[in-house]
């Protein structure tokens, strides 16, 4: 994934001197919410619960 320079600059400008806000803005730019939602589907083992997707598309 490539985050454009302008998006990073906008995150820095929005956050100002607040490090926590900068962290939040960068997580947003990197799509962390999508990663968090998809994480359960990345690992499979005998002990993992099965999540059936009945309707796709």
Automatic annotation (TrEMBL):
It holds the Pfam family DUF3145. InterPro entries: DUF3145. It comes from the Bacteria. This is DUF3145 domain-containing protein. It comes from Homoserinibacter gongjuensis.
């Amino acid at each position: 994934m490539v985050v454009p320079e302008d998006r990073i600059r906008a995150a820095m400008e929005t956050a100002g001197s607040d490090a926590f806000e900068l962290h939040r803005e960068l997580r947003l730019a990197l799509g962390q919410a999508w990663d968090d939602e998809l994480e359960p589907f990345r690992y499979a083992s005998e002990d993992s619960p099965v999540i059936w997707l009945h309707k796709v598309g």
